[in-house]
Amino acid sequence: MPPSKSNDFQAYQVCQGDTLPLVNTTSLAGPYQPLTYAWDIQNATPSTSTDSSLTVTFNASGPSLITLIATTPQGCADTTQALLSIRPLPVASFSAPP
Fold it and tell me: Do 10 and 25 form a contact (C-beta atoms < 8 A)?
C-alpha cells in the first residue's frame, strides 16, 4: 500500500512589497523520510527555494502562482499550487490651491 500523504501550504492575501511566510504543511505517513522540497514563486524574492518553509517578498501586483513539490527519497513526488492575488499599492497624492 502506498504511503498516505498530504501536500499543502498556507498563504494569505498580500499587497505589493509585503513580506509573507509560506508555511509548508506537507505530511507523510510511514518510513519515507526525509522529504525534499522545491518551491517556485512568481513575482517574489526569492523566486525559488528548497527550504521546507520560507518567507518571500512580492515585487509586483497581480497574480502570483506558488508551486510546492514534495519528494520522498524513493522519488515519489506530489505538487500543490496556489494562485495569490497581490494587491497594488495606492498612489497617494493631493493638490493645494496656489
Answer: yes
- What is the spatial order of strands in the sheet that 54-58 belongs to? 9-10, 19-24, 54-58, 44-45
Instruction: Quote the CA–CA distance of 40 and 59 in Å, as a whole number.
Output: 14
The one-character DSSP state at 62 is E
| Model confidence at 16: pLDDT above 90 | yes
User: In a 3-state reduction of DSSP, which class is residue 70?
Assistant: strand
Cα separation, 71 vs 59, in Å, equals 28
Residue 5 has pLDDT above 60, yes or no: no
pTM of the model: 0.80
For residue 87, what are the β-bridge partners?
A: 15
